[in-house]
Amino acid sequence: MLSIKNLKAGIEDKEILKGFNLEVKAGEVHAIMGPNGSGKSTLASVLAGREDYAVTDGSVQFLKKDLLDMSPEDRAREGLFLAFQYPVEIPGVSNINFLKTALAEIRQYKGLPPMEAKDFLKRVKEKQALVELQVSLANRSVNEGFSGGEKKRNEIFQMAMLEPVLAILDETDSGLDIDALRIVANGVNKLRAPERAFIVITHYQRLLEYIVPDFVHVMYNGRIVKSGTKELALELEEKGYDWIKKELGETIEA
Amino acid sequence: MTNIAEKISPGDKLIAELELNQDSLPGSETIRSTRRNALKSFSKQGLPARKSEEYKYSPVNRLFQKELTFATTSSVSDEKGNSFALAGLDASVIRILNGAVHIPVSGFDGITCAAWNLKSLPKEQLSFFENHFAHYALPDTDPFIALNTAAFQDVLIIKIADGAVLAKPILIQNITDSTHASFTQPRIFIYVGKNASVEIIEQFASTKKEQHTVCNAVSEIVVESGAKALFYKLQNDCPGLQLISTTQVYQHADSHFDTHTVTFSGSWTRNNLNIVPDGEHCETHLNGLFILNEEQHTDNHTLVDHRKPNCESNQLYRGILKNKSTGVFNGKIYVRPDAQKTNAYQSSKNMLLSDDASMYTKPQLEIYADDVKCSHGSSTGQIDEEALFYLRARGISADSARILLMQAFAKDVVNTIRIEPLRKEIELLIEKRLAH
Q: Which pTM does this prediction carry?
């Protein structure tokens, strides 16, 4: 589904991704862990198409198409979803109008007719329940006045509404208390499906207790330095990132 | 002959033309004397010079580069006039064509609400009119007020009786026939009686075939004690029009005046909105919205002159500027020594969508009382790139996302429009204007 090869990217003159490789197949959940500054969020931004980053080398194939060649909106329409680490507040744009517009444009791109208003509202209600998001979305602007937990739940709610093929969760656990974390993880687990893949970016192992990954990758200095199964996350939790740094010591200095 | 003509300044040429025509212009003896004084005042002031502080960002010389003669009556058909109608708006309509006031047969019963022009003004109302006319918009304060007062061809006079609550809004269509080059001077006087309540929309429009046309409109509005007036100025269908529009408002105690100045169309616009709350417990709201493209120029000059204690004024202006357009917001607030406990606020936010667009904002607060709350804020920025990316990351095209964000930006002002069909129409116009 997703094939990232030797991806190099950065901002201004600073190279952050330094030859990143990853293969993701349908139905898989990949966790990407790593210390601060290792390039995790840059990876999410580059995949979603944030224009501040320049790709200097490598390739990304998504559903056999060149992802890097697409606009951010086309990536979303093809089925890529990024759950933002810092969801943006947009005063004056109602949540409902926002979702309606997004769904309509995605459906149009796929050559589907617009969704009936009744079906749309039914879906909203259903998916809101999934993440226990109780705020009235019709009268409120996107993320405006939402608590940190509500914002993150709103991300998962949007994901549920748009039904992506590949979802990237960028530190969705940051700033969440244990209850909110459980709710968010629950929402994600309910969306796990054989045709859908996830990339879960996180600093801590905690989230992975709830969203159990098939693969765990450790990212350091712009690339994956170690891959394994969920046990790797536990090992990291126990030994800390210094263990990885030490293991890599020689090669990094070289 | 052309050599001599070239040496005469545009201002002097207007004066000469007016001096020649003074006797043929309508009005009672009192009105004529007001005209003559206004002409003297204009002769003294002349057209604003390039260095004039008040017209610094809106030099008027471009309006008078080509020869302008005062407009004569025009015969725009009803059909043409009807084409400017606002969808779904049930209103009592009055049409002003090139300054000539066409009083409709229906919609005004003459008792709760009367509408006259100079010809139809009943004798017993003459002294009422003379007691107000040109008492608020003073010729000495602005050359264009002076010019209008010297040169107007007709006046729309609207009188709302004490205690009258009008069910329907009044729509004044101020239409300029731009098939011929002309200089029009529409004049309006609105009197809102004690405890009365009225909604008025003044729409500026012009016929499509654009010649060099300048409209210099002056409205005087008196809001009596306890009365409530909502006044909407909409400029939506006059692409080539160059407009100087002065709205002069005088508020008595306990009155409420709520106004919106919405500018979408017009190549060059100067809105002068001067409000004098001259009694205690007045409430005043000034809202403005403009969306400009190409080389459009819009200048909103506001003045709120607080003279008495315990009043509140609130200004909310939003502007979106595209291409090479320019905008100006100059907001003056006076709080006089007697006006203790005044609350006066001002907010002007603008969004520039192109590197070639420019916006000049100038808040001017002059406060002579010590127990007041006054604040102002202005900002000019670009579209929020983070918000734009967020919307695009959900599958919304860059163009739609920009429109959503700009609609959201305008919403602060749009949401305060109380006449539902007007708000809907303005929402549609915003969408249309933002789309290209």
A: 0.88
